[in-house]
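User: quick one, sequence for these tokens?
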């Protein structure tokens, strides 16, 4: 983190199998301003892009991974839905 870089806090929620993968259902993270959903995922899974099938929302609206996050946003990640 750089001295002049500004930061924001966002709440991140995990559902279904992602909850087990991360060992929690939510957390608050401090991110550099200008971070997008894909950048948040890369921070969570060091260097890995958001996999196909993982859905994400920002403030309860489905979004693509290039959506820029803002202070106080709530991001949620959902694994692919399966069933029959």
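Assistant:
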């Amino acid at each position: 983190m750089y001295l002049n870089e500004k930061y924001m806090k966002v709440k991140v929620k995990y559902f279904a199998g992602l909850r087990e993968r991360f060992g929690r259902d939510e957390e608050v993270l401090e991110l550099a301003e200008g971070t997008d959903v894909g950048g948040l995922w890369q921070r969570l899974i060091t260097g890995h892009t958001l996999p196909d099938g993982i859905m994400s929302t920002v403030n309860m609206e489905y979004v693509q991974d290039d959506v820029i996050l803002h202070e106080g946003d709530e991001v949620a990640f959902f694994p692919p839905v399966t069933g029959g």
